[in-house]
Amino acid sequence: MRIKGLQKTTLLDYPGHVAATIFIGGCNFLCPFCHNMNIVNEDESDISRDEVINFLKKRASLLDGVCITGGEPTLNDELVDFIREIKGINGGKLLVKLDTNGTNPEMISMLINERLIDYIAMDVKSSKDRYYEAIGLSRDYVEEEIIKKVERSIEIIINSNIEYEFRTTVMKKLHDERTIEGIGKLISGAKRHYIQSFVDSEYVKDHTLKPYEKEKLYRFSEIIGESVLNANVRGVD
């Protein structure tokens, strides 16, 4: 497991908690709007696991929890033991939030069943028919391999006993109202979903992508709200 970044304090990544964020390198998606492509491509220097654990031990009394993100953390078999080690700090008081794209439902199920994570945030990239566009992979591969795993992870998360959210980053080239309706169908019955606006950055692959106006973001959230209990827009003033 290659740790590519450590944000020592965040008030944003773990809702309602003071947390540290750990970035795990590598991903099986090539999303054209990804702003962490330097981590996906593993361009950043590694941070040792011992360094991260020692930091958490020193700061445990000041932190509520840890957010583990990427890249895609669940690609790493070492993740389970790493979280077990985090859970052993400060008498197990540190909460753990996992960010995932949902392509390893077996690991997600294991982490939930063993009570190793307290919150999970899964990105739902698009409707089933346009998922391949949003993740930058071939249509046949996505429809044969990826969608089934995504659907299984959604099912596991909705039926779990931990806090969770689904979220979708939207932009003009890849999302419209029909796409948003399809996302709603994928996560029908979920507790919570957030629409997030696309933000360009130096690491984004496709700089032709453009964000929607605020009013449209709220319209998308209304559409999602027809399928989930709580739908909202995040990161918009």
Characterization of the model:
The protein contains 8 helices and 8 strands; from the N terminus they run ββααβαβαβααβαβαβ. The chain has 237 residues and is of the alpha/beta class. The protein has an 8-stranded mixed beta sheet, covered by helices on one side. Strand 3 (65-69), helix 3 (79-87) and strand 4 form a beta-alpha-beta unit. Helix 4 (105-113) runs parallel beside helix 6 (139-158) and helix 7 packs parallel to helix 8. The longest helix is centred in the middle third of the chain and has 20 residues, at 139-158. The radius of gyration is 17 Å and the shape is globular.
Structure at a glance:
The chain has eight helices and eight strands. It has 237 residues and is of the alpha/beta class.
Task: Give the terminus-to-terminus CA distance.
Answer: 37 Å
Strand content: 15-25%
- What ranges have pLDDT less than 50 throughout 5 or more consecutive residues? none
Counting copies of identical and different chains, the oligomeric state is: single chain
Strand/helix succession:
EEHHEHEHEHHEHEHE
Helix content: 25-40%
Molecular shape: globular
| Radius of gyration, in angstroms, nearest whole number | 17 Å
Number of strands: 8
Widest β-sheet, arrangement of strands: 1-2-3-4-5-6-7-8
Structural class per helix/strand content?
A: alpha/beta
Major sheet size, sense and barrel closure: 8 strands, mixed
Mean pLDDT: 94
What's the tally of helices? 8
Features:
single chain, 237 residues, alpha/beta, eight-stranded mixed sheet, 8 strands, 34% helix, 21% strand, globular
